[in-house]
Design a protein that fits this description.
The complex is a heterodimer of chains A (317) and B (190). Chain A is of the alpha+beta class and 317 residues long. Chain A is 26% helix and 33% strand. Chain A folds into three domains: 2-58, no CATH class; 74-232, Sandwich (Jelly Rolls); 240-311, Phage tail protein beta-alpha-beta fold (3-Layer(bab) Sandwich). In chain A, strands 1, 2, 3, 4, 5, 6, 7, 8, 9, 10, 11, 12 and 13 form a 13-stranded mixed β-sheet that branches. Chain A is elongated, with a radius of gyration of 24 Å. Chain B is mainly α. The model of chain B is unreliable at 88-102 and 175-190 (pLDDT under 50). Classes of the chains: A alpha+beta (317), B mainly alpha (190). At the A-B interface, helix 1, helix 2, helix 3, helix 4 and strand 10 of A face helix 1, helix 3, helix 6, helix 7 and helix 8 of B.
């Protein structure tokens, strides 16, 4: 008797998500015998203890300085040999394509796009993506650029971003995906996201808020790290801003040039490594240049097409 | 509606389940027959399932032992069996010290180690199933598709593994079993 109840409880604990008819059957089962609720609680408690013990090894607490920081990836994987094969998961996620929505942003354009399911995609400059919301899935194909997704919770419809060499999957959470020339970066600002390389040899990796994964090549496991502040700062574009925190002048210029027709040109490479701190309007490169003129030995020449930065002649020592 | 809440299950998994083994041992040492131990443990979880707020329970272990004792005493009353001294209020002072003393708490920590070694017995597939489920909730069907097996295989594998881990975590120590057998025959002699 106990045995049967325990078995049924274990099965109910594992079953999810419950659709309406399954929920009704569970309610029936619970009503049938007063002992069933206790057995179910015990089974669910056991499941919770097992899951916590299995997954706690993937948590990384110590912060890492830079986004590109190399981490030993082993502990991030779901245990050696236990990770999911990406091919298997791709199989799960291989939905038929329905009519989707295609969005392209121009240079300097930042777009906040509310989706029908309640999610919001905030799309960065010069990006292209395609969104398909189906009854059993939510899928975004990021062709290039970057988007930050605030995913509305819906356990029955996983939210998957396909960025070519890498995939990211969430249920209800917020994360950013960048697809650039150098690879793909997934950075989590809220909740949990599962990521994996698109090629079959990869493992699934769990990212928590404040963690990121960099994918360099198809099939290769990502480099992982934790940098909550840096992730937030890198998303300053959502507010039309560029946040610099000891970034090099070269990187800062690259950021401004992403958003503006009027390009900043550095004529003196010896300035490229200068470190900068500050918060700037991303559509005002001339303000940024003016600030440089005041704080560095920089001469600023503004024309209609570009902003040229050179080292001040008088400052040469 | 879900009748068992996730947050409650999580609390029970962390604060109650690790003490179930000691509870079983404790009941056996008090000459409670095996079948009745099972009933009492089960009823403890039924009562826990009715809790609406666990935040006020400062000593989950003591709380568990207290409800178990109450249930055992109710059983005795209902069955109008001769009351066993070991379960009586008079004997309870000792039990109270018993389940709160520091070495008991150390033992509870060892139970975490017991969970780890129980997990080591999981098959690779069972482990994958638990992980896939935990990872932002792949459904049973998705897990089955990913592993290339049927849903019922996933369900059987997972539920069997869950029960096996529970058993390894909560089965009382062997000397307890010996005592239970002795206690069982004594109870029958009433």
């Amino acid at each position: 008797m106990h045995d049967r109840i325990e078995q049924e409880a274990a099965e109910w604990a594992m079953r999810h998500p419950l659709d309406r008819s399954a929920q009704a059957r569970l309610d029936d089962w619970l009503a049938r015998d007063a002992r069933h609720s206790g057995a179910l609680l015990r089974a669910m408690a056991g499941l919770s203890a097992i899951e916590n013990a299995l997954v706690s090894g993937t948590e990384v607490r110590e912060p890492i300085e830079v986004l590109a920081a190399q981490r030993p990836t082993r502990r991030w994987l779901l245990g050696g040999g236990l990770g999911l094969s990406a091919a298997a998961v791709s199989g799960v996620l291989g939905w038929g394509w329905l009519i989707g929505q295609s969005i392209t942003t121009a240079r300097g354009e930042i777009r906040r796009l509310p989706l029908a399911d309640g999610s919001v995609a905030t799309i960065n400059s010069d990006s292209q993506l395609r969104i398909v919301l189906a009854s059993d899935s939510r899928r975004v194909e990021l062709g290039r650029g970057q988007a930050w997704f605030q995913v509305a919770k819906d356990r029955t419809r996983p939210f998957v971003v396909d960025a070519g060499i890498a995939q990211a999957r969430a249920v209800g959470t917020a994360f950013s995906v960048i697809r650039g020339k150098d690879g793909v970066q997934v950075a989590v600002t809220e909740g949990t996201v599962a990521v994996w390389p698109s090629d079959s040899s990869g493992m699934m990796t769990i990212l928590e808020a404040g963690q990121f994964a960099n994918f360099k090549a198809a099939g290769a496991p990502p480099t992982l790290g934790s940098a909550p502040e840096k992730i937030e700062r890198a998303l300053a574009w959502r507010n039309g801003e560029i946040a610099l925190e000891n970034d090099t002048l070269a990187d800062a210029i690259a950021s401004f040039n992403r958003y503006n027709q009027r390009q900043i040109v550095l004529t003196d490479p010896s300035l490229a490594k200068e470190k900068l701190v500050g918060l700037f309007k991303l559509d005002k490169p001339e303000n940024f240049a003016a600030m440089l003129g005041e704080s560095l030995d920089v001469e600023v020449a503004v024309t209609s097409g570009e902003i040229r930065l050179s080292r001040k002649k008088s400052a040469d020592r | 509606m879900t009748s068992v809440r996730e947050d409650l299950a999580k609390w029970v998994g962390a604060e109650i389940l690790p003490h179930e083994r000691d509870l079983r041992t404790w009941l056996q040492r008090r000459f409670v027959a095996a079948a009745e131990v099972e009933d009492i443990v089960q009823e403890c979880y039924c009562r826990l399932a009715r809790l609406t707020d666990v935040a006020r329970i400062a000593e989950p272990r003591a709380y568990l032992f207290t409800i178990a004792r109450n249930i055992a005493l109710e059983h005795r009353k209902r069955a109008s069996v001769v009351r066993l001294e070991t379960l009586s209020d008079a004997g309870e002072g000792q039990a109270g010290i018993d389940f709160l003393s520091p070495d008991r708490i150390v033992e509870a920590r060892q139970d975490l180690g017991r969970l780890q070694s129980a997990l080591a017995t999981l098959s690779d597939r069972a482990r994958q199933i638990f992980l896939m489920r935990k990872v932002e909730g792949l459904s049973q069907k998705e897990i089955a598709d990913a592993l290339g097996v049927t849903e019922s295989v996933v369900e059987n594998d997972a539920s069997r593994s869950l029960r096996a881990v529970l058993r390894l975590m909560t089965a009382p120590e062997p000397e307890g079993i010996a005592q239970r057998q002795a206690g069982g025959s004594r109870a029958r002699s009433h």
